[in-house]
Amino acid sequence: MSKLTEYREKLNYTQSELSQKSGISVRTIQRIESGANLKGHTLKAIALALQVDPSELNESSKGKTEYNYPLIKLINLASLLFLIPFANIFIPFLIVHFKKEKNIITKQIVSIQILWTIISVALFFTAEILKNELLLNEQLPFFVLFICMLINGYIILRNAMEIGKNNQLRIKLNYSII
Predict the structure, then answer these.
(1) Contacts of 153-159 spanning 24+ positions with Cβ under 8 A
(2) Annotated domain spans of the chain
(3) Which of 30, 71, 117, 118 is in the most buried spot, having the most CB atoms within 10 Å?
(4) Which residues form a coiled coil (predicted)?
């Protein structure tokens, strides 16, 4: 069953009623519900008539990808074993590559680790410069690195809990680096 059919039936519309509300022919609605692609003006008109986001109509339920959530959780937790910058990227990336579990969630996990590694390294070097310029404690850069590792640990554990509960990430980016 297509998403269009699901939304139409949820609102108790017939194909005729949806046709009248959207200005799209009944035959076009029938073709879309049979599996034809929904795009352009037709997508916008039907989404407006059903009062849903257009992107929701393009995902058919039969084409929905089933994710291996236990493996995704393992990929996420693999970063925890290597909180040290760079290892926290390579181990999850290798698991994703060899297990062929490249999807939006695993891309997000690796992207978060890449971004966090860049931030951690930048903060470490900033602390090193400040230590030398302001004659601060010799341990400052390592303290900053330790705090970054704790924050990364929190991100990983929080996402692992959310994957376990709701099959999604709690802390995620609005984009993917990879």
Answers:
(1) 153/80, 153/83, 155/112, 155/116, 156/76, 156/77, 156/79, 156/80, 157/80, 159/76, 159/109, 159/112
(2) 3-57, 69-166
(3) 117
(4) none
